[in-house]
Amino acid sequence: MELQINNQKVQFDSDILSIKNMLDIHKPTHQKGIAVAVNQTVITRDNWATYYLNPSDNILIITATQGG
Q1: What are the average pLDDT values for consecutive 10-residue runs of the chain, which has 68 residues?
Q2: Which NCBIfam families match (predicted)?
Q3: What share of the chain is helix, strand, coil (3-state, %, to 5)?
């Protein structure tokens, strides 16, 4: 499956992929402090394991940063 993640095409071996599966592959060590939106809708962390992605989905991964 090919997904659009942060405006870049990313290829995955699986055709059935939840947000959690995608993050385990795409960002395996950096899953704290992030938010995920699919087609401009934020998906809560509680739903990552059960929200399945489609090839046409546009995914935005936002990472929190500290500053001041």
Answers
A1: 94 92 85 92 97 95 81
A2: thiS
A3: 15, 35, 50
Phi then psi dihedrals of residue 34, to 5 deg: -120, 160
Indicate the DSSP class of residue 45. G
Predicted model pTM:
0.86
Query: Domains in the chain, please, with CATH?
Result: 2-63 (3.10.20.30)
At 3, phi and psi to the nearest 5? -120, 150
Q: For residue 11, which amino acid is it?
A: Q
Phi/psi of residue 21, each to 5°? -60, -45
